[in-house]
């Protein structure tokens, strides 16, 4: 297809032939975004799930400004700095007990690659042949080759299939079918001697906001433990309050062997990620033998400005006021979706913590169905930033969202159903 306009910037997950205009945003403040053409939008998806306390939170902005003027980048091999040390210390106080080491990187995908490399490095360094990874169907772990390999296969990665490595898949624990998932995991762990199992705890995000209960997470951990399969929790999306607790694993009383956090780690202000692990994984790499080094880095590992933002975010979580907001958003969200639970135009109306999701009943389902962009355009016209996954509409607001904002968001969703269902 020949294009007739100049397109200098190639946007992510965007089909430019179908969408040539991008909404230009000038400014963000709390739950609001201000467009160049003078509109105020409500950010109902936290700008792709990253903004937790609202855009441009003054405490985080100040920390960034101060750090940027002091030390804004330093090689992290052989060197360290206060912001990274403070973030590591504060993180270790708050993550599930048993996670003892922090490895920094700069995106969720990278934190997953690091997790996979830690797992394989562990088995390699203790001299055991365990290389396979168990994954859950419909999962999403990122868009790099390794993270795509452990994620759902489909139209998003069909072209790259030849580069992706083989994994063992178990089904999503749909309600009433949890035992099938647990049996499949147990069988994989017993018979295939995998290196690790990677999973999004409690909610599969990009896979369609699919939710499952804490007891299933707990059982999956027990099964992995019984066969010494490393348990990797990808909390890139679920971390930082989204599921109602700081981290989703807390609700199942699970300490993963390896955990990935990113997105909200800086409150959504700057890119940063961490992969945490238990001591035995670190110890398997600890040696006077240089070949056992953990061979991973990125140029901006533990960038001081990003770490200062993360430290500021951790300060906010110290404050009961910010923790209370999570509970209050969860309550407001439950109240807001109550009416949709009995609305026949919607199915699977669901909530975990601060996240709600509902499926618009339509013959036109699936991620690539036209209903997704149509809904998106409708919400845009209502000054709502919502980006449905196909016919699945979800609301994942920053925690400063008000009841009035939520009223506006759900009125938009109701009207979208009137207009498009
Ligand atoms: C967003 C996401 C990732 C990838 O994070 P990026 O920062 O976009 O690379 C990985 N895992 C999960 C569960 C995610 O939601």
From TrEMBL:
Involved pathway(s): Cofactor biosynthesis; biotin biosynthesis; 7,8-diaminononanoate from 8-amino-7-oxononanoate (SAM route): step 1/1
Residues binding pyridoxal 5'-phosphate, per UniProt: 108-109, 234, 298-299
Top EC class, one word: transferase
Coiled-coil regions listed: none
Source taxon at top rank: Bacteria
Annotated site residues (Participates in the substrate recognition with KAPA and in a stacking interaction with the adenine ring of SAM) in this chain: 13
Co-factor requirement: pyridoxal 5'-phosphate
Keywords, in A-Z order: Amino-acid biosynthesis, Aminotransferase, Arginine biosynthesis, Biotin biosynthesis, Cytoplasm, Pyridoxal phosphate, S-adenosyl-L-methionine, Transferase
Molecular function GO terms recorded: adenosylmethionine-8-amino-7-oxononanoate transaminase activity; dethiobiotin synthase activity; pyridoxal phosphate binding
Primary location: cytoplasm
InterPro entries in UniProt: Aminotrans_3, BioA, PyrdxlP-dep_Trfase, PyrdxlP-dep_Trfase_major, PyrdxlP-dep_Trfase_small
Subcellular location: Cytoplasm
Binding site for substrate: 48, 140, 263, 297, 387
Transmembrane parts of this sequence: none
Catalytic reactions of this protein: (8S)-8-amino-7-oxononanoate + S-adenosyl-L-methionine = S-adenosyl-4-methylsulfanyl-2-oxobutanoate + (7R,8S)-7,8-diammoniononanoate
N6-(pyridoxal phosphate)lysine modified-residue sites: 263
A GO CC term attached to the entry: cytoplasm
EC identifiers of the protein: 2.6.1.62
Quaternary structure and interacting proteins, as annotated: Homodimer.
PANTHER family: ADENOSYLMETHIONINE-8-AMINO-7-OXONONANOATE AMINOTRANSFERASE
Family designation: Belongs to the class-III pyridoxal-phosphate-dependent aminotransferase family. BioA subfamily.
Protein task: Catalyzes the transfer of the alpha-amino group from S-adenosyl-L-methionine (SAM) to 7-keto-8-aminopelargonic acid (KAPA) to form 7,8-diaminopelargonic acid (DAPA). It is the only aminotransferase known to utilize SAM as an amino donor.
Name of the protein in its database record: Adenosylmethionine-8-amino-7-oxononanoate aminotransferase
Organism: Bradyrhizobium sacchari
Classification of source organism: Bacteria, Pseudomonadati, Pseudomonadota, Alphaproteobacteria, Hyphomicrobiales
């Amino acid at each position: 297809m020949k294009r007739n306009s100049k397109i200098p910037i190639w946007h992510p997950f965007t089909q430019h032939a179908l969408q040539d205009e991008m909404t230009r945003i000038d400014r963000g403040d709390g739950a609001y975004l201000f467009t160049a053409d003078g509109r105020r939008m409500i950010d109902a998806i936290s700008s792709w799930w990253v903004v937790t306390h609202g855009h441009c939170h003054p405490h985080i902005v100040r920390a960034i400004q101060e750090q940027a003027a002091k030390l804004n980048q330093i090689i992290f091999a052989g060197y360290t700095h206060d912001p990274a040390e403070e973030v590591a210390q504060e993180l270790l106080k708050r993550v599930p007990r048993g996670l003892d080491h922090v490895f920094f990187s700069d995106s969720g995908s990278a934190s997953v690659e690091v997790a996979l490399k830690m797992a394989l490095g562990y088995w390699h360094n203790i001299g055991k042949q365990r290389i396979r990874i168990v994954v859950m169907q419909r999962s999403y772990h990122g868009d790099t080759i390794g993270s795509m390999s452990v994620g759902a296969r489909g139209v998003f990665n069909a072209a790259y299939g030849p580069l992706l490595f083989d994994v063992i898949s178990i089904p999503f624990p749909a309600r009433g079918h949890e035992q099938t998932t647990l049996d499949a995991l147990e069988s994989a762990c017993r018979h295939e001697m995998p290196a690790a199992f990677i999973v999004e705890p409690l909610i599969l995000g990009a896979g369609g906001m699919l939710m499952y209960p804490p007891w299933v997470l707990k059982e999956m951990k027990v099964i992995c433990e019984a066969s010494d399969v490393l348990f990797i929790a990808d909390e890139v999306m679920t971390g930082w309050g989204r599921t109602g607790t700081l981290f989703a694993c807390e609700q199942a009383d699970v300490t993963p062997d390896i955990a990935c956090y990113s997105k909200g780690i800086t409150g959504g202000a700057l890119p940063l990620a961490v992969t945490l692990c238990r001591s035995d994984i670190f110890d398997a790499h600890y040696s006077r033998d240089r070949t056992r080094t953990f061979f991973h880095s990125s140029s901006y590992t533990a960038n001081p400005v990003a770490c200062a933002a993360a430290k500021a975010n951790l300060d906010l979580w110290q404050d009961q006021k910010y923790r209370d907001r999570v509970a209050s958003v969860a309550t407001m969200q439950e109240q807001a979706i109550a009416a949709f639970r009995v609305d026949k135009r919607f199915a699977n109306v669901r909530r975990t913590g601060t996240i709600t999701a509902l499926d618009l009943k339509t013959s036109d389902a699936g991620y690539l169905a036209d209903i997704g962009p149509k809904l998106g355009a409708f919400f845009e016209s209502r000054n709502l930033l919502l980006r449905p996954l196909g016919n699945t509409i979800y609301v994942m607001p920053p925690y400063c969202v008000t009841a009035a904002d939520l009223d506006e968001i759900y009125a938009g969703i109701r009207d979208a159903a009137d207009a498009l269902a």
